[in-house]
Design brief:
The structure is a homodimer. Chain A has about 350 residues and is mainly alpha-helical. Chain A has one domain: Farnesyl Diphosphate Synthase, CATH 1.10.600. In chain A, about 70% of the residues lie in helices and about 0% in strands. Chain A has 17 helices and two strands. A two-stranded antiparallel ribbon of chain A has the order 1-2. In chain A, strand 1 and strand 2 form a beta hairpin. In chain A, helix 1 packs across helix 5, helix 4 runs antiparallel to helix 5 and helix 4 runs antiparallel to helix 17. The radius of gyration of chain A is 19 Å and the shape is globular. Chain A starts with 6 loop residues before the first helix and ends in a 5-residue tail after the last helix. In chain A, about 60% of the residues are buried. Chains A and B meet through helix 5, helix 7 and helix 8 of A and helix 5, helix 7 and helix 8 of B.
Chain lengths: ~350, ~350
């Protein structure tokens, strides 16, 4: 299946880009410089063009990179649709879309430091260019700015939207905390790993899908349905991303083949494989326990062992199940049919197999 | 003049400590561990005792350390008074006091990383114990938690208080950004340096002094008066702290004598001295331009040159002027007399000369 970027993503990019640029322009010059670089903003008036598809690690934002420049407007597209689901015009979703995108990039800025990642979207990461301190501060600024944008709306919905975002931010932080802690642990149960992905990836996606509607005063029924859809899509996305981290082609992922194995990440396919209790699982554990860098043949063997231990098939099935659950949420939530169809196409796009 | 800690600071410590512990208990375990350590919380039920007075760098929070454990409750004390200024009971100020204290500690956690500081309150800083990543994340969590606490109050005042805090956070970040940028610049005008202190230190102090009143629905007149008082107190505090950074006794500051000169910080007395255009100013510039570590005799000479170039007297006069302006704001703002007297005593306490 080939991923064709839905038109809504490109549309969101054009609509939200200038507002994002205007928001970032409010930052003080020293901080703004770093934020503009990280966001790839051209002169503060929207996203610059990026013709190289990229995938930058475990971060959902990277997904969009698989389509031309699209990744950068994935969450904004979901938020504009969210506003439309509540019968508002897309423009009414812009502040919430900007806020979600700012939070997403706050987390990328800080995660890149924590993970020691030196490249994102085929460019050096902000901390490698401006220093750790400046990158920490730019992340802080984006988080604070996101909340401020929503609080400017003095209607009650502004407060609800701010709370929706705040809850997502806290889960995102909890998820990243768990992820960091996993690195120090030998055996992480699959359930904990899934919970971590739910916090780190799915919570902000659930927010992106519901905050637009919440911000225009949607019914709790619609808001809950959209949040459920987003949470399932978020997990399906993470599962797909983890599959790409092992079996994705470099031209799709923008990273060397089997990069997650190379980095010994406790990604979902690996954790699922390790807990199989079979001979391939034990062999995989032995291979990953060794502290020396894995050679290319060892990496190939590790990928094979994950597959033989059932890690790949489990992840594929779980991704499909999450996608199905997302569609079920979508079917039940009250919204215009064309909006539902656009949500569905974005869900399919970001979980499309490319390996 | 000896600094005697006002009773309100100890009172705030007892009243706000448990609420702070309860707030931090909401964090996920991996993140909470770091936050509890940084805050010096004992078992999550309030601040632990600390018998050693300390001063930890340029951060205002450290001021309280000059009195027994008091520094930790300086902003909370101001926020409880702020609620009382609006004729509320102190307990009504607790959520706002906790939020301000969380933001203050978010900034300390991140600043310690940026500045490479290895010690705070006579203990190793969080990043040296748990790693940079975990400390970044704990700071993020405290910032997000602070906003969430205020947003839980669905009354309109909750939104106003959240905005008050959000504005302070953004100024704080802008100030830290300017401070980082100053390190790379040879000549920083005094006005820019004062503006930086206004953002980095005074903005959160202004918030602490007004947010309690705002959160209980105070009149704009009172809120503005309290914010003005806090801004001036914040600047007076920073000027005092900068004097201590050069002339403070180690037993007062918890740091080696002349620590700010040792670190070549562009503190206000130094910047004021450098721009004097006199022979001592030129000699000071020469001394500080040298990249080699300054010897003890050189440090003593640098302190003398700052004094001869007028940097010390300018800073003392400016601190006194800011304190006077603070008192003027206080006199004009409508509030019960006993509250005004307590505000005044805290202002005197945190700007008391100890060199």
């Amino acid at each position: 299946m080939t991923a064709v970027m839905p038109a809504g993503v490109e549309y969101a990019r054009d609509l939200v880009g200038p507002a994002l640029g205007a928001a970032v322009a409010r930052l003080s010059p020293d901080v703004r410089k770093v934020a503009v670089y990280h966001l790839g903003l051209a002169g503060g008036d929207g996203w610059s063009e990026s013709t190289v598809p990229a995938r930058a690690g475990r971060h959902p934002g990277a997904a969009a990179g698989r389509g031309k420049s699209g990744g950068k407007a994935l969450r904004p597209a979901l938020t504009l649709l969210s506003a439309r689901a509540a019968h508002a015009v897309p423009e009414q979703g812009i502040p919430a879309a900007v806020a979600v995108e700012l939070v997403h990039n706050f987390s990328l800025l800080h995660d890149d430091i924590m993970d020691g990642d030196t490249e994102r979207r085929h460019r050096p990461t902000a901390w490698t260019v401006f220093g750790v301190g400046a990158a920490i501060l730019a992340g802080d600024a984006l988080l604070a700015l996101a909340q401020d944008l929503l609080l400017e709306d003095t209607a009650p919905q502004g407060l609800w939207a701010a709370r929706c975002l705040s809850v997502a931010v806290q889960r995102l932080i909890a998820g990243q905390g768990a992820d960091l802690a996993f690195e120090q642990r030998e055996d992480v149960p699959l359930a904990e790993c899934l919970a971590m992905a739910g916090d780190k990836t799915a919570a902000l996606m659930a927010c992106a899908c519901s905050i637009g509607a919440i911000h225009v005063g949607a019914s709790p029924e619609l808001a809950m349905g959209l949040a459920g859809f987003g949470a399932h899509v978020g997990l399906a996305f993470q599962l797909t991303d983890d599959l790409l981290g092992i079996w994705g082609a470099p031209e799709v992922t923008g990273k060397p083949v089997r990069s997650d194995l190379r980095a010994r990440k406790k990604s979902l396919p690996v954790v699922a494989a390790l807990q199989a209790g079979t001979a391939p699982a034990a062999a995989l554990a032995d291979l990953l326990r060794d502290s020396a860098a894995l050679s290319e043949p060892e990496l190939a063997r590790a990928a094979r062992l994950v597959e033989e231990a059932g890690g790949k098939s489990w992840t594929e099935q779980e991704a499909a199940a999450q996608l199905a659950a997302a569609h079920a949420c979508l079917a039940q939530a009250p919204m215009p049919d064309e909006v539902r169809a656009e949500f569905a196409s974005i869900a399919e796009f970001i979980t499309a197999r490319q390996w």
